[in-house]
Structures are given as C-alpha cells and as structure tokens.
Amino acid sequence: MTNHWVDIRNADVILVMGGNAAEAHPCGFKWVTEAKAHRKARLIVVDPRFTRTASVADYYAPIRTGTDIAFLGGVINWLLANDKIQHEYVKNYTDFAFIVREDFAFNDGIYSGYDAQKHAYPDKSSWDYEIGEDGFVKTDATLQNPRCVYQLLKQHYSRYTPEMVEKVCGTPKEKFLKVCEMLASTAVPGRAGTIMYALGWTHHSIGSQMIRTGAMVQLLLGNIGIAGGGMNALRGHSNIQGLTDLGLMSNLLTGYMTLPNEAEQSYDDYIKKRALQPLRPNQLSYWQRYNAFFVSFMKSWWGDAATKENNWGYDWLPKLDKPYDLMQTIELMNQGKVNGYICQGFNVIASAPNKAKTLAALGKLKWLVIMDPLATETSEFWRKVGDYNDVDSGSIQTEVFRLPTTCFAEENGSLVSSSRVLQWHWKGAEPPAEAKSDLEIMSGLFLRIRAAYQKDGGKLPDPIVKLDWPYSNPASPTPEELAMEYNGRALADQTDPKDATKVLVKKGEQLAGFAQLKDDGSTASGCWIFCGAWTQAGNQMGRRDNSDPTGIGQTLNWAWAWPANRRVLYNRASCDTAGKPFDPMRKLIGWNGSAWTGADVPDYKIDESPDLGMGPFIMNPEGVARFFARDGMNEGPFPEHYEPFENPLGYNPFHPNNPQATSNPAARVFPDDRKTFSTAQSFPHVATTYRLTEHFHFWTKHARLNAIIQPQQFVEIGEELAKEVGVVDGARVKVSSNRGYLIAVAVVTKRIKVLTIDGKKVHHVGVPLHWGFTGLTKPGYLTNTLTPPVGDGNSQTPEFKSFLVKVEKA
Ligand SMILES: Nc1nc2c(c(=O)[nH]1)N[C@H]1C(S)=C(S)[C@@H](COP(=O)(O)OP(=O)(O)OC[C@H]3O[C@@H](n4cnc5c(=O)[nH]c(N)nc54)[C@H](O)[C@@H]3O)O[C@H]1N2
Ligand SMILES: Nc1nc2c(c(=O)[nH]1)N[C@H]1C(S)=C(S)[C@@H](COP(=O)(O)OP(=O)(O)OC[C@H]3O[C@@H](n4cnc5c(=O)[nH]c(N)nc54)[C@H](O)[C@@H]3O)O[C@H]1N2
Ligand SMILES: [Mo]
C-alpha cells in the first residue's frame, strides 16, 4: 500500500476493483465502513461477480475478467477529454512535459523493439525520454510538443472510448460513465479517492500493467501521496509483504535491491546501473545511495569476510541467466533438471497452475522436503485418492521427507502488514510434540551443509563457509537476534559528518535508520528498509501507543512502518509547489519556512526549501511520477489492453487484424505449455477462481469449525447458464478445461450475470479454490486442475483469474 489501512477512512471515494476486500480482508475492510459512516464516502465495486464487497457498495459495475486495462484506459480517456484532472499536480509532479525519443513507436498493438521469434522486447532503448547534452531530460512546459508524454498519452488512450469499453468489458456504457463521474469528483484539491486491489488485477498475463493503469488514473486525479488516496495493494498471507521486503523472490535481495544478471560480472557495472544519476537539475535521486545499502547488506551476510578488496563478496552472489520463479522451477522439474525441492509453508500442487504438470514434475524429483505443520496435498501427492488425485503411485520414485514445523502462533516474531507496518507478536502457545520452528530446521540444514563443505571443499565453498553466523545458539537463532540483524549495527564508531569529534553511534550499537548506512564497510544491515525497526532504544515493532494527535489516523507510535516509520509514501505530493497542503483538513506534511513538518515522516529532504523545485518522487531519478514507463515494464511503456491467453473472442477488439497483439506479446509462456491451452470452440465459458472468508486457502479444511461452515466444494454459475446446461441449484456439474476437470455442487446465483462482448453472450463461472483431498471437509478436486500455465510478463504471476472452461451436467 502507498497509504495504510487506517487512512482508508480519509477517502471520499473508494474504488475496489480487482479484489474482494469484504471477503478476503474483512478486518481491514472496516476502514471502508468507517469512511462511509463518517465522511459519507462512496464505495464503487467493479467485479465480474456481485461480491460481498459489492453488496455494501454505493455503485456496482460488472466487467469481463481480464479487461481492466480497457476499462481504466477508458477512464483515462474520459478524464482527459472532460478535463477532470488535477492540473497543478500533473503539471508539476508527473512526466507530462517530458519529451520522448523520436524512434519510440506503437503500431497496431506492438511497440518498437519487438522480436516475434522471442515473444519479447529485447531492445527497449526507444522507450525512453530524450536526454540533452547536460544529461537531463528535455521538457516542454507548454505540453504542445507532439512527442511530450501528455500528447502521447492522450493519443494512446483516445481509442478507449465508452463504446469500446462496453464492447470489450461488457460493462454497459451508462454504468461505465457513472464510475467515471464518481472518480472524477476527486480531481479537485480537498477531495481524495483511493483504489484497493488484489488478485483480480495481479492474476493475469497482463496484471502488472493493470495496476499501472490504476496508478495512472490516480495520478491524473492527484490522488497519490495524499491522505485518503493512494494505490493500495491488499496483500495475502499475513506476512507476504515481509516476504517480498526480505527479498524472498528469486530475482531480489532484501529491500528491493536486485540480484545481478549474467551480464553483470563486474561489481562496478552492477552498482552503476542501480545508483541512478538525477535526470533533472537539483533533483534528489535516492537510489544513488544503493551502494551504501548494498555494502551494508553484504557485511551483514559475510561479516569480516566481505572486504573492499573482494568487492564485499560480490563474486559469491549468483548471477541470474533467467528468472527462477515458481513456474520456471516447475518447468525445470518437469524437464527432469531438478533433483530436490524444499517446500516450506507451501502447498505447491494445490497452489500452482495446471495441477497435471505440477504432479508430473514432483514425480521426477529424487527427493522432496516438506516443512509444514500439516499433511498437505503436496506431502501426499504420490497417493491415489479416487478421482481427486488420480495418480499411479507405483511409478513414483520421489523420496518425501516431512518435517513438522511450528506455525506463526507458536513463536515470537514480526509480521509486515499490507500497510508496510512491522508489528511484533509474542507466541500464544507451545508447539506440539516434535514440531520445530522453521528457524531451527533451516539452521540445522545450514550447519550440516557448512560442515560438509568444510570437510570436502567443493566448487565454490566460500559463500557457505564464510557466511557470518553470530548467534548465541547457532543451532537455533532467536527471532529477536534476526530482527536486530535486519535493522543493522555500527561496525565502527559513526561520527557526525559535520563534527568528527562527535560520536553518533558507537561501534556495536544498533543503527537509528538507513540514513546512517555507509558504503565503506563500517555498517551492517540485513535489510535497509527495516533499518529503524530495532534501534538502540529497543524493539520499535513492539510499540502499542495508538494516540492519533492530528485525528487523521497517523498513529506513528503504533509498531513501526518502513521506510523510516513513514505511513504515506510520496507525501510531499500532498502539498502544492510552495509547500502548502492541498487539503489543510487532512494535512500530512507542510513547509514551515525552514523544515517539512506534520502528521507523517516527510518523504523528502527534511530541510529542502520548496523554492528549489525538487520533485516529490525521489525514488525516480527524474523526481516525478511516470505515465511513460521508461524502464522496468516488459510489454511497453503505456499499458495496452490484451486479451487473456484463453479468451472467448479469439481476437483483441483493439487489434482485430493483428494476431500478434491478441494476448500479451511479452507474457511468460513455455513452448510446450501452448498446446495445453483451451479455445472457445470447445470451452465456451469464462472461469475465474477466488477465496471465501470461511477458509484460508488449502489448510483451514484441517480445522473442524471451518470444515463445518464450508464443508463441500461448489462452483457458482448464473441463472441463464444454469438454464442453458440444464442444471438446478444444488445439482452436480462437471467443469472441464483442456487440462482436466472437477465435479462439484452448482450454486445457481443472480450474482453472476451474462455479459455481451462484441455482440457475443459470455457466461462467467466462479470457482472457489479451497478444496482438496486432505483435511476434514468432504474431499474435493484441486481448483488448479483447471488453470492455465501462463504468467504475467513482469512478475510471472499465473493467470488464475481468467481462463476457459466448459460447464455441463455431471
Ligand atoms: N478468508 C480468507 N482471506 C484471505 C485468503 C484466504 O484464503 N481466505 N487469502 C489471502 C491471500 S494469500 C490473498 S493473495 C488475498 C486475495 O484477496 P482478493 O484478491 O480480494 O481475493 P480473491 O478472492 O482471489 O478475489 C479476487 C476478486 O477479483 C475478482 N476478479 C476476478 N477477475 C477479475 C478481473 O479481471 N477484474 C476485476 N476487476 N475483478 C476480477 C473476483 O471475482 C474476486 O471477487 O486474500 C487474503 N485473504
Ligand atoms: N487458482 C488459483 N490458484 C491460486 C490462487 C488463486 O486465487 N487461484 N491464489 C494464489 C495465492 S495468492 C496464494 S498466496 C497461494 C497460496 O498457496 P499456499 O501458500 O501454497 O497455500 P496455503 O494453504 O496458505 O499454504 C501454506 C502452508 O503453510 C503452512 N504453515 C502455516 N504456518 C507455518 C509456519 O509457521 N511454518 C511453515 N513451514 N509452514 C506453515 C500451512 O499449514 C499450509 O500448508 O495460492 C495461489 N494459487
Ligand atoms: Mo496470496
């Protein structure tokens, strides 16, 4: 979240799109209820289904799955055409005036630099601004230059008319226009709108770009950086935010630093590409500090063994030849290229797309380690359970080891919420029987692997043998020790840069924040964004003071938020260029003549006078927010609508004559998987998968109460489809895709309506994801038996939310 949960109550308009917060985030959703009760906020829900969130909305609009870019692109077009934008904001705080290179082009759905053989854009050099001789971006403040971002944006989305939105999304034009008007009411200073989204946007082959389109709408409305505004990603598992913060993605280090790729063998090249020089005069480009974060991180991992002479151990970091995400891992397993797999708190056969492929892949391993408190479908993947897990057990050679773990409630630790708040918790119960904590198991593995390397050597023993392991009990580090390590400490006395005789932090003491991190090896910090969470003053995550001095929910003494305990990111943008809050009633910060002060920690240089004109988006070297994504995105700088890989039309209505542009031209597809896709001729119905409040994924079916309230697998279909296939409420239906089928009870509902897409009737089918063949509920089929193995072009997240099936009477 750019903002935070409590801040949602500051919103005047709330758009829930691509998520179902009342169902999946019921505790956080209370802040929507507060906004409605206390500010008369309006709640809009756009979802293919009339959900629990929709049931309390002020306005609901249906949409076909996978078409949110068409919808939001339509909103952008409408806002520009009707002049409903926050002019002062976009003019000063975005790239509207920036000039784009001459060779940048967009032709019938494809951007410049495409390689059709590779299904990718290997050459993205044209997706950039024009850079002058002085090293700065060229701009045109009049916005007249046909190559400025504003003009290109206007031109790009001019095709996204209300008629096209209706044709592609199936959203009736008058409903779409009503949503535009409600959103547009927040374009004025003094009114705030927020967007809450989750998997309905991420689980698509074009998901990252859906989120960007939402962010672009928010920028036009001046809704980023202000109280009650923002782009609010509602995260999943209680600590999934912490997982990404700590770099547990295959391409990341901690704090969103990135692993080097194969071409970056030189440490200097690696740093130069990341420590970005400012692209505007007087601009602060915060990533210029990358080296300080990186060196401190390396010192934290390798201690004294990381030296200036060995580039802090740079050669010990893996250099990636490709992303090693989940789908890649399963692909490699399936090709027989993986020997063993450690599955920690992860039920992969239930949660990955195309169960048949995952099942085959697991069967090709030599060994599989499961670290989980429960017996899961993955730990039992080799067992035939009737039709539910139709496997030939005798043919599987994989040796499976089950290591029972504690669960989060049985240990101390911190969880990072969607709000970026790190909150400490204390264990509620002792672990049962022989369960061990994940920390203890991982440490046990490490100590044994290190001993083996020490004894036998090996190709590259250094990264393991030299790893710093400074814990009081090496076999079982405590969560407290780890939390202190992530924060970081001084490895030598740290003195005041203005007065070398003044010692700010003594050697060995905890650091106060990431501003103190150094690139000379004199500080260590395991995760720079967590620096400040456990200072010399103690554990900041354990704080429980909920006082709210300004009354707008900025409880700065409740736990601790990264970065720097800041609660609203980009909060400098909540003020005009002179530093006066756009909305004095919901003031986050303001310029008092000598400093930025207020209810939040400024996201800016604290004493930088607004007269100097530095932009508020200091993590971008240009200092402003981007409509034109000059780097980073894999399918183009402006989001374009592409169809889901399995779609009911077979063409993209925006590019009906260009098959290359039907679906995301840069999506993640493995060649062999293409033949598993369904087509509309055989599989005419659009399916989407989702969760229910009563269950948490695949594990609460082991808990008796949850099993009682949702005991049996069901799917939801609309009344018209039920009539077409001849089933009544409560009957059994078979739902098949090209990859498999499931049989479940049909819930026939008014909450899913047939949509008309380019003249064609399209039915949606809703498939909740919780059931399987272990636990206390009635056995069911894994939902991912049905889903396609295709991923987003940037995040590689699978397209769980839009694919084709056939519904028939069972
Ligand atoms: N009780 C409970 N709570 C949970 C979980 C749980 O299992 N149980 N899981 C947690 C986890 S890990 C996560 S990631 C979050 C997920 O939180 P959500 O993303 O809110 O959960 P989903 O149920 O997957 O909801 C997706 C919603 O998106 C809609 N949708 C599908 N396709 C589209 C589309 O193309 N466009 C639009 N606009 N909407 C679409 C669906 O109809 C559905 O209502 O929930 C968390 N909370
Ligand atoms: N079709 C479809 N597929 C989906 C989704 C979808 O919407 N549709 N959603 C996707 C999403 S967003 C998610 S997050 C995944 C979820 O997929 P998974 O994360 O695989 O699902 P969970 O059932 O939450 O599995 C977590 C496991 O962790 C165990 N566990 C709990 N506490 C601890 C602990 O302290 N230590 C250890 N070692 N284990 C513990 C639990 O017993 C459980 O078995 O599914 C994904 N798959
Ligand atoms: Mo999730």
| Sheet with most strands: strand arrangement | 22-28-23-25-24-29
Bound chemical compounds: ligand MGD, molybdenum atom
Proportion in helices: 10-25%
Structure class: alpha/beta
Mean pLDDT: 97
Rg calc? 27 Å
Task: Spell out the CATH superfamily of the largest domain.
Answer: Dimethylsulfoxide Reductase, domain 2
Largest sheet: 6 strands, mixed, barrel
Question: Between the first and last Cα atoms, what is the distance in angstroms?
Answer: 43 Å
Q: Do you know the CATH architecture of the largest domain? A: 3-Layer(aba) Sandwich
* Mass-distribution shape: globular
How many domains in all? Answer: 4
Number of DSSP helical runs: 20
Uncertain stretches: none
Q: Briefly, what CATH class of the largest domain?
A: Alpha Beta
Beta-strand percent range:
5-15%
CATH topology of the largest domain: Dimethylsulfoxide Reductase, domain 2
* Strand segment tally: 29
Description of the structure:
It comes from Paraburkholderia caffeinitolerans. Its main location: periplasm. It is found in: Periplasm. With 810 residues, the chain is α/β, with parallel strands linked by helices. It folds into four domains: 6-236, Dimethylsulfoxide Reductase, domain 2, CATH 3.40.228; 252-320 and 479-540, no CATH class; 326-446, 3-Layer(aba) Sandwich (Rossmann fold), CATH 3.40.50.740; 659-809, Barwin-like endoglucanases (Beta Barrel), CATH 2.40.40.20. It has 20 helices and 29 strands. A six-stranded mixed beta barrel has the order 22-28-23-25-24-29. The longest helix is centred in the middle third of the chain and has 19 residues, at 438-456. The two termini are 43 Å apart. The structure holds ligand MGD (2 copies) and molybdenum atom.
